[in-house]
């Protein structure tokens, strides 16, 4: 998932949550904390593909 702050890039700075074709939440992203890419988690599915 790619996100940005709403003030920096509005199309990637808002989201909605849908359940059973109904919108249940809408919000904007005010800040983003970048994560260290070396600490990424490998899922079992991705590990099987290697």
TrEMBL record:
Domain GTP-eEF1A C-terminal stretches: 1-30
Identification of the protein by name: GTP-eEF1A C-terminal domain-containing protein
Alphabetical UniProt keywords: GTP-binding, Nucleotide-binding
Superkingdom, taxonomy of origin: Eukaryota
Stretches of the chain forming a coiled coil according to its record: none
Gene3D superfamilies linked: Translation factors
Stored InterPro entries: GTP-eEF1A_C, Transl_elong_EF1A/Init_IF2_C
